[in-house]
Every structure is written in structure tokens, then in C-alpha cells.
Amino acid sequence: MFLRMRAGSPAEFGLGLEKEAASVSIDMGVLLRRWRILFPDLTNCISLCQKQQQGCRFYHEKQKRMLLSQHFLSMNLREDSVISQESKRGEMTCKSQRLMLLGGLICPASPGCYHYMPYTVRAMEKLIKVIDREMQIIGGQKVNMPTLCSAKLWKASGRWELMSKELLRLADRHGQEYCLGPTHEEAITDLIASQGCLSYRQLPLLLYQVTRKFRDEPKPRFGLLRGREFYMKDMYTFDASEEAALHTYALVCNAYCNIFNNLGLRIMKVQAATGSIGGTMSHEFQLPADIGEDQLMMCTNCDFSANMEMINSDQRHCPVCKGKLVETKGIEVGHTFFLGTKYSSVFNATLHTSQGKLAPAEMGCYGLGVTRILAASIEVLSTEDAIRWPSLIAPYQVCFIPPKRGSKEEKGAALLEALYDSVAEAVPHLKDEIVLDDRTHLTIGKRLKDANKLGYPYVIIGGKKALDDHSLFEVWNQNTGETLFLTREAIVDLLSEV
Ligand SMILES: [Zn+2]
């Protein structure tokens, strides 16, 4: 029933089949009864639909507010217990890991594997949208390939041996061997070969996916920065000539720069080694950070920069302009490879050139660490006790904090709720991006602290001044550190720009 595997460590895993197997065997009646407990409104809606038979009314009900108290968040994690849990496993910790654990954004499952909690999933889905957009602008088409990769393909490319312990290997009940895909050069090239010859008219062909990848890290560490299970965007490109393939390579690198620009992250594109992927040219996209595990050399005079592994250790001058080289550290968030015909010649992925000849495809492959970008951006943008996300991918954009129940300012709560409703109505694109922290048994200060743990770009507080004639609300711009007192109208204007 289960596909079992052995990792490098003695721990054993069952692939998550149990949940699916259980859910298919549940009959609808049981499911509905369960839903009725979990989602009373939804089941009301179902009976309403059954009665009226005219489509669902659920979403037309009175405007609902997004209440923080209803979110699945473990905000009561205590710092020491979280950190000791991780360090017991021998994992090193860093700022992004600590902040993500403290905010209840991730929850440890086994070494190098985390549950992604709802806020993290929201951020990740937004990040994938940003990536999708840039990949599709350059003609990328999204596919989705199996995680179980046949050993046959990996043996053909020679990587079954080459990757040794990094591959998570397993066998099915028939004794067929597989690995859990860390990357898909073999699979995609075999797919292309199986489709018969491509025509030059279809080129360049750019295929990509965003899926879970696996690597048996000897020492998983730094939370989502170096796990054993992670999300990656991987793109594979096919061209008829080396010249065309290099043009495509430049196109994808440019799209990567756009992605990081859109996120407001300073990126370094450095020359890099090709490693086990192979090919003849490679670049890494690095976010400069103290905890970065890559040593980089950067010219102080021109654009040249390279991973230390690319240059002689005693080299202190730029190979391009002889300027001085300085050392810095980076987190690798993307990696591009010009592969040539390394894989296409093995798997017989051929195409018809414009001269009517048959030729092996000239390929490139391009990775972006999706979950690693989430953690790395937190690493470089956050302070020691407050998470900052690139605004574009913050899980929610605005948090409203009404006064504490029973306090002198309590009457301000209704004004703040009215402000919440105005924003939801006047700024439709923010309707699902705003949260009301209704835990009014807590002080404003305590909830503001929690807001810092979650990283809303804006926090709006209904304090004393909300009760004045001018009714001013306190607006914190978390990214600039600015605090403003604004009227309802001014806040709607401000948030319209978000
Ligand atoms: Zn230089």
C-alpha cells in the first residue's frame, strides 16, 4: 500500500498516501456532517442552494470580516521551546528560521521538512504568481511532472551514480527503482523525445513547473533555506542552434532579474560552476546576506562577479578589468545552466532545423528556489524581532487593531470596524488582504507585537484620537517605519495605491 523509502539517515517515511486513501473512502454524508461542524455557514449555504436551486448565495451574504482569531496560527509558541526543539535535532538556526517559527508560519515535521502554515502558503502562492507572470511574458508554458522519477532515466544520464547520497531513492512493490525528483532534466528530455521531432517553427520551446523537490541533505539547516523537501520552479528550454539557445538563456536571465526587481530584492548574478547538472555555462542568482553559504568575489570597478569556486583562491584582481576583487557572502536563490546537447543526445530529443536537417535540441535549464526565496527575503529584509516581506508577497497587506475591551477607548472599536468595511468596499483588490485583529482581550501593544511577527506592510490602530472630532486613526507603514494619523478618507486613498 505504501511506497517506503530509506533516506540517508535511518529514519523511514511513508509517502502521504494515507490521507488521500482515507478521504476517498468517506461517504458524502459523513463529509457533510463533518463540514457542518467546521463550516456552519457553508452547510447553511448548501441547504440554501438545495432549497432554491438557483446558485450559491454564500458569497452574497453580508460582508464578512476576516477575523484574526479564526486564523490557524500558533502564535503562542514560546521562543525558547521552539528554538530548543530545533537545536535538539542538531539544526543550526538563523533569523528567518527563528522568525518564521515564532510567528507560527512554519512548523517542524522532521529534519529539513516543515509544515507550511496558511500565512506561508499565501505568501508562496503570491510569489508563484509573480514568477508565472515573468515566465509567461517570455513564452514559458507551465507543465507538471511526476515527483517519482524512474531510475532508468537517471541511469541513462549517469546521474543515478553521480548524485550518490543526495538522491532520495525508493522501490515500488515490483522492485522498480525510483528517486524523488530533485530536478527534472531527464524527465523533460524524455518527454520531448516521446513527442516525436519538434519543428523549428515551435521554437524556442520553454517549459516550466513549480513543484516539490527533494534532496537528502546531510545536515538540513536554516529552516526553509536548506531543507530536504522544498518548492522549486524549474524551466527547461529547447532550441535548434547554440546561438538561438544562448539568446533564450539571456532572455530567462533577464526575466529572473525582473522577478527580483519586482520583489524589491537586490540580486547579484554571478558566474558559477556547472556541478552535477552539467553544461558549459552557468550563473547563480545570489542575495547578499551574512549567513549566505556561498563565497562570492565581486569587482569594485566593473560588473564582474563570480562564485569563489570559479576563481583561484589567491586571485585578488578582476579577470575583466584588473580592478580589485572584494569578498561577500550570498544565499543562492536561482541557478541557470546552458546545457547544450548533454541530455538531448542521451535521450534522443531531436528537432527539424530550418534547413530540413535533424539535430539534437540545444537545451538550457533554470531553477528558482521558491521556498528559499521566501526565507531569504525574510532573512535580508527583517529586523531581529519583526518580519518584513517584499510587499508584493506579504500574506496580508493590512491589519486593523481595535482598542482593548473594557478600555477607555473601547468606543473606537465600532469606528475602526466601519473603517475596515469602507476599505473592503472602496478598495476591492484589498478585500481579501485585510485582517481584523479581534482578540480584544489583549492590549493594543501586545497585538502590535504579534503584527510584527507576521509582517503586515500596514497596521491601522483605533486609539484615543479615533474618538476626537476629526476621528484620526494611527497608520503604521511597517516597511518605512513611518507612523501617520489619518482620517478615514485619507486611509482609503493611501490604501488604493497599495
Ligand atoms: Zn572588473
From TrEMBL:
Broad EC category: ligase
Gene3D superfamilies linked: Anticodon-binding domain, Bira Bifunctional Protein, Domain 2
Catalysis: reaction(s): tRNA(Pro) + L-proline + ATP = L-prolyl-tRNA(Pro) + AMP + diphosphate
Keyword Hydrolase in record: no
Predominant location: mitochondrion
Example of a GO MF term: ATP binding
This protein's UniProt keywords: Aminoacyl-tRNA synthetase, ATP-binding, Ligase, Mitochondrion, Nucleotide-binding, Protein biosynthesis, Transit peptide
The protein's name: Probable proline--tRNA ligase, mitochondrial
